[in-house]
Design goal:
10% of the residues lie in helices and 18% in strands. By secondary structure, it is of the alpha+beta class. Strands 1, 2, 3, 4, 5, 6, 7 and 8 form an eight-stranded antiparallel beta sheet that branches. It has a five-stranded mixed beta sheet with strand order 11-10-12-9-15. A two-stranded antiparallel ribbon has the order 13-14.
Length: 523
């Protein structure tokens, strides 16, 4: 077996600052049998999240992949666990970059220092994909790497807590590795390495234009963006922009706004008819409503209680403006991983709910580490520019900022193949297909977050919207008009079990809760 360890981005923290960057360790699954690969029990460097990847993202894998891991603290081996292969690279230009790999969903296993694996092709594909390997992620601790991921950070939407629920965990040392094959080393191979600072961007412009073009017209469904934006005469349907400054991508002037200021005002929300707003190829101005706070609070770790702004008087409190959201800095994102600035949609027509398909046995104090590991996996393993989901929610109801670009802005994500260009993605940490049940706190947080995010664009969380599929998804064919709930499950757009049976069955109640949420438009 070939082994290599690669830094996940940036430099290791300097001596004395008590932090270290995440790392991606790789084990090649080589072999002569074209239909299967096996790795005997092998000692590794410490990792907490694992997946399988291969060279060509267009080469789908049909079969099974199972892993066992050894706990670093006790030396005990887990039972066999299945990896989920229901993931696709985004249909935007981001998914066509040469570094994009096919991959399974990542699985959080906790601090581990050994692995055993078996992969079998048993579908129409009679061979395992080329360059098959295990990708193991050590989430590290909070680091202060600089990159395009921090360019627009938290935006101006909602509370921005500066503390997170334990974003600086350490990984305990385990017993001496038992190996049947050499343990991973830092020897260079063809595994991913740190991108140089002068590396060319991955097919995106140096500023933050939207990655969309085209539009709908005369009663037709909303059209997906072209793969290479060519401009649009449409303007985003955003509320009056706030005058509060936000951070801008390096090399840009944060005071300069796009010249094509929006002229429309938000509607009361979508109807059962098609969406008619054309997307734009320019980054929209911040759609921050006038009730969003103009100062970023520096208070303690958020709770699941809604954040509130001071009312005009002591006797007439106002409604809350936005849910509390832990910023990327709060959960310790290594922004040096993100090489390109964010792209933006014209508006958010829908929210898709996901689950991470990992474990439900995590402590909520582990949530920042889990999200750091997913960021590293999405960039170093999948080859995407940033973490795929726009938001995360954990079982304690804490909301976390996902992909960078501003929580209150329509950031283009990589979460729902075929519908990324219209939607925002919320992923609940945990597995809700194999017995997990979403907590009341998690469902409330999803409802409030979805109501707020849709409300920024005048969209009702209890409505339906018709969108045009931008790709063949296994549920919809490319160009087909898809009528969806404005709060939908991943499986409504793409052929997957996500967000799991119990979370999917909870979506009708989540829509009702969102409709009565204080963050919903008109409440």
């Amino acid at each position: 077996m070939t082994a290599v360890a690669a830094s996940a981005g940036g430099e290791d923290a300097g001596p004395g600052d008590g932090a270290r960057s995440a790392k991606a360790h790789v084990l090649a699954l080589a072999g002569k049998d074209p239909k299967k690969r096996a790795l005997p029990r092998t000692g590794t460097q410490t990792f907490s999240l694992i997946g399988v990847s291969w060279e060509d993202s267009g080469d789908s894998f049909e079969g099974t992949a199972q892993i066992r891991t050894r706990a670093a603290t006790t030396g005990e081996w887990s039972g066999w666990r299945d990896l989920d292969f229901e993931v696709r690279a985004p249909e935007s230009a981001e998914g066509e970059e040469p570094d994009v790999r096919g991959a399974s969903e990542p699985l959080w296993v906790g601090a581990s220092d050994g692995v055993e694996a078996r992969v079998v092709a048993d579908g129409e594909e009679t061979a395992v994909p080329d360059a098959l390997r295990l990708d193991m992620i050590d989430p590290g601790e909070t680091v202060k790497g600089k990159g395009n991921g921090g360019a627009k950070g938290n935006g101006k939407g909602g509370a921005k807590p500066t503390a997170s629920p334990d974003a600086t965990q350490t990984t305990p040392a385990g017993p001496a590795p038992e190996t049947s094959d050499p343990a991973p080393t830092d020897a260079p191979t063809d595994a991913p390495t740190d991108a140089p600072t002068d590396a060319p961007t991955k097919g995106m412009p140096s500023t933050a234009p939207g990655d969309t073009s085209g539009g709908s017209g005369s009663g037709e469904a909303s059209q997906p963006p072209s793969e290479e934006p060519t401009g649009s005469t449409g303007t985003p349907e955003d509320p009056t922009p706030s005058t509060t400054p936000t951070e801008s991508a390096p090399g840009t002037d944060p005071t300069e706004a796009p010249t094509d200021e929006p002229t429309g005002t938000p509607t009361d929300g979508p109807t059962d008819g098609p969406s008619t707003e054309p997307p734009t190829s320019e980054a929209p101005t911040d759609p921050t409503p006038s009730t969003v706070p103009t100062e970023e609070p520096t208070g303690p770790t958020p709770t699941t209680e809604p954040s509130r702004t001071p009312g005009p008087s002591t006797t007439a409190p106002t409604a809350p403006t936005a849910p509390a959201i832990v910023s990327r800095a709060g959960w310790g994102a290594d922004e040096s991983l993100v090489q390109n600035p964010p792209s933006y949609l014209n508006k958010v027509d829908a929210v898709f709910v996901h689950h991470t398909a990992g474990t439900n046995d995590y402590a909520c104090a582990d949530s920042p580490a889990i999200i750091r590991a997913i960021l590293t996996y999405h960039v170093r393993t999948n080859g995407w520019n940033d973490i795929g989901y726009n938001f995360f929610v954990d079982k304690c109801g804490t909301v976390f900022e996902g992909r960078a670009g501003g929580v209150d802005r329509p950031v283009l994500g990589a979460h729902t193949y075929g519908f990324n260009s219209y939607s925002s993605g919320i992923s609940l940490l945990g597995d809700y297909e194999t017995g997990g049940t979403p907590t009341a706190a998690a469902k409330q947080a999803i409802a409030d977050l979805a109501a707020w995010k849709l409300g920024l664009h005048g969209v009702s969380p209890e409505a339906k919207v018709t969108l045009t599929a931008a790709a063949d998804t296994g549920v919809w064919t490319k160009g087909q008009a898809a009528t969806l709930n404005t709060i939908s499950g991943h499986r409504d757009g793409y052929a997957t079990l996500c967000p799991g049976a119990t979370l999917y069955s909870a979506l009708p109640g989540i829509r009702t809760t969102a409709g009565s949420s204080p963050y919903a438009t008109g409440n």
